[in-house]
Design a protein that fits this description.
2 copies of one chain form a homodimer.
Chain A lengths: L8 H8 L7 E7 L5 E8 L3 E7 L8 H13 L17 E3 L2 E7 L11 H17 L16 H15 L3 H15 L6 E4 L8 E4 L2 E5 L6 E4 H12 L9 H14 L4 H27 L13 H12 L9
Antiparallel strand pairs in A: 1-2, 2-3, 3-5, 4-5, 6-9, 7-8
Helix pairs in contact in A: 3-6, 3-7, 4-5, 4-8, 5-8, 6-7, 6-8, 8-9
Chain lengths: 319, 319
């Protein structure tokens, strides 16, 4: 079971008594979700996701996450809509955890996106950046370069047990990022984790984006750099120039990038690869006893990082 | 994630091409399921469960499990209905695993059943026993007393590390069961795992039974003995006489027990407690590295076993 917190039928009934969601037809724990416990809730009105927020999510951040989904959904962005209870609150408590109900989003992850899918992902990311404007809460990115030294320190001693040369890679890339990180490029609310499993497609069209629990304020182009890491490498970690070109084209069809953003993209892509390498490396080296989760392989991101390190910024030229 | 086998969208599309289930709207791995990988599949026609059978389930047993659900569902028993593909097969292969699609059953597990719920569980078990008659495949119970010596041997040396006195308990109870196991009481197809999580309720009524992957041919009264272990103890492992009385009344409202079955019930209840104690103990002592599953506490069943050991058979008197 990937359910971290069990919910009894009595606790569920008591929680739902304050909502107008109809009669419960079924309630099933969903696999996946490293951070939280998710249940699929079906009622005679509709289908919902009920999320219990576990320790890895700071309760103080929840108004940002829930508020952002609400802000975006109300502006027509295809993402889960937080459901308010009769008191107007979208955030409550269940089984001792903060809990929220959000609408269910149809669609499926694409395992092997084509350049067309990447174009749509780029369009959608730019739409999200634009529609997030005016959202009133701010949340700094805890995993920007200022957060990386701790992750390097906690993993460097054992890094080479995962892959030879890993310690040199993370320590030198940290220095590189610190020395070359851009200043004064456009910033705003970013998703910061728009990987393939968080983007759904239906009938070949992008149907929505989920999982805003890494969303934060940062450079908009950093989100693109995450997206390039997420969407533009194949199963063997080889860069896909066409996918990248289409992602950038899609994004720029909505919001053209400034020259300074394009110039910073390679540094940001190396930084994004380093960020996911570091969290994966820490998870890999510190799998807790009785863990529910198989950690992701850090080598997927050392490979990306090495690619960006040797590539020129021409990889981001739009063909 | 509790998903043991990931299914790509391409593999799913290829598998479903041979079914008439409509357009896929979503596909989510379900938490839970120690033995198998389960996905919730929603299409524009209906909702289904897609199961991939993992190593712990013998492929040779699948025609029994699938055939039994089919047999029962066609006789009006509320259980999942296996879905046949265009070739008439309900069993196929997906991602290198045997796989089947079954209908989705609405309802929810009751965390704390009342005696009324126990009555309904008894009724439903008896209905299952009757409707299973005429099912043509046989499957011996691998976890009857002949299967217990191996489980005792593989756990006895470390049993007392789980609970003092555990080794004496399992070794002496094994001997007791072997010497007192009944002969020549009615047998047939039993569920053998009708725990609370496998029985759904909706609007206070029993809506169906799931998970037939321990079903087998054995004494019908042994299924009742499993049910008493499953339904008639509270969270503190205290026996609930009224719950037990109602479960037996419910069962006998459909199929009255013979005198020999009633006389054997205490031995069978001790045996059922020992069977779940032994498998839980083995799972507890042998949690594999990187396990997805938190093993169930064996002490829940040593407590039941000790209760039955000291109780007289009057605990099964129907008040």
């Amino acid at each position: 079971m990937a359910v971290y917190t069990e919910v009894t039928d009595e606790a569920l009934a008591s929680f739902l008594a304050n909502y107008d969601l109809g009669k419960v037809l079924s309630f099933k724990g969903i696999a996946g979700g490293v951070e939280n416990t998710n249940y699929l809730l079906r009622t005679d009105k509709d289908t919902y996701i009920l999320t219990l927020y576990e320790k890895r999510v700071a309760e103080a951040d929840l108004p940002f996450f829930i508020g952002l989904m609400d802000h975006l959904a109300h502006r027509g962005f295809a993402c889960p809509q937080p459901i308010r209870n009769r008191n107007g609150n979208a955030l409550g408590h269940l089984e001792g955890r903060p809990a929220a109900i959000i609408s269910f989003l149809e669609g499926m992850e694409i395992s092997h996106p084509t350049p067309d899918h990447c174009f749509m992902a780029g369009v959608t990311m730019a739409n999200m950046h634009q529609k997030a404007q005016g959202f009133s809460i701010e949340r700094p990115n805890a995993l920007d370069p200022s957060g990386w030294p701790d992750l390097v320190e906690s993993s460097r001693a054992r890094a080479d047990t995962v892959e030879p040369g890993m310690e040199e890679l993370i320590t030198s890339e940290l220095v590189f990022a610190q020395q070359n990180w851009p200043a004064q490029i456009p910033h705003g609310v970013i998703h910061a984790d728009m990987f393939k499993d968080n983007v759904f497609f239906l009938d070949g069209q992008l149907s929505g984006v989920i999982d805003f629990y890494f969303a934060c304020n940062d450079y908009l182009a950093y989100d693109i750099a995450v997206g390039i890491n997420a969407w533009c490498f194949d199963d063997d970690y080889r860069f896909d120039q066409r996918a990248c070109s289409q992602l950038l084209k899609g994004y720029q069809s909505i919001r053209p990038l400034e020259a300074a953003e394009l110039a910073a993209l390679l540094v940001l892509a190396r930084g994004a690869a380093l960020r996911f390498l570091l969290t994966r490396l820490n998870d890999w080296l510190n799998v807790p006893e009785g863990a529910f989760v198989v950690p992701h392989d850090p080598k997927a991101f050392s490979a990306r990082l090495k690619f960006f390190r040797q590539s020129g910024s021409t990889v981001f030229d739009i063909a």
